[in-house]
């Protein structure tokens, strides 16, 4: 072994991480996927959404649709319908429709992107071939 390798591998790594803070950040990720706060203002949000609306009234609020959109990253639409049915069965929500209604509501969401500070950025990939260029009609349509 050369002397340059001994110098490199001989150094002891000192971990400067705040493990308590890091643990809390990991816990918040789980809270994101099970944020049931939408149920606190279900009726008030629906009343506001349906005020002056023509046609069939909304039966579940936008906050709930946003949570389902986040879950859709992991679960298909019929699976989301199953989750909705179970939440209604447990009386956590008063009503849930079918997956077609949810599909329409999720696809009508206009995303609001708030750019975080550079220090807050994380990047991950699931290896599906996501393109980093602005190619593709879907992305152009949603923006």
Word description of this protein:
This protein is mainly alpha-helical and 143 residues long. It has one domain. It has 7 helices and no strands. The protein has helices spanning 3-10, 19-33, 42-50, 62-71, 77-89, 99-107, 137-142. α5 (77-89) crosses α6 (99-107).
What's this model, at a glance?
The chain has helices spanning 3-10, 19-33, 42-50, 62-71, 77-89, 99-107, 137-142. It is mostly helical and 143 residues long.
What is the overall silhouette? elongated
How many E strands? 0
- N-to-C span: 56 Å
Mean pLDDT: 80
Overall SS class: mainly alpha
Number of helices: 7
Indicate the radius of gyration in whole angstroms. Answer: 22 Å
Report the helical percentage. Answer: 40-55%
Low-confidence sequence ranges = none
The number of domains is 1
Biggest pleated sheet:
none
SSE topology string: HHHHHHH
Strand content: under 5%
Write the layout of secondary structure elements.
Blueprint: H1 3-10, H2 19-33, H3 42-50, H4 62-71, H5 77-89, H6 99-107, H7 137-142
Helix pairs in contact: 5-6
What labels describe this entry?
49% helix; mainly alpha; 143 residues
């Amino acid at each position: 072994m050369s002397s340059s390798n001994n110098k490199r591998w001989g150094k002891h790594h000192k971990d400067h991480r705040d493990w308590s803070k890091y643990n809390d950040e990991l816990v918040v990720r789980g809270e994101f996927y099970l944020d049931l706060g939408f149920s606190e203002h279900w009726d008030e949000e629906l009343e506001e959404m349906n005020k002056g609306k023509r046609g069939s009234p909304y039966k579940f609020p936008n906050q709930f649709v946003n949570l389902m959109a986040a879950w859709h990253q992991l679960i298909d639409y019929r699976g989301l319908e199953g989750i909705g049915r179970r939440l209604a069965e447990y009386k956590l929500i008063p009503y849930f429709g079918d997956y077609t209604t949810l599909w329409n509501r999720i696809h009508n969401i206009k995303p609001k992107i708030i750019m975080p500070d550079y220090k807050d950025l994380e990047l991950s990939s699931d290896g599906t071939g996501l393109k980093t260029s602005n190619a593709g009609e879907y992305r152009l349509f949603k923006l």
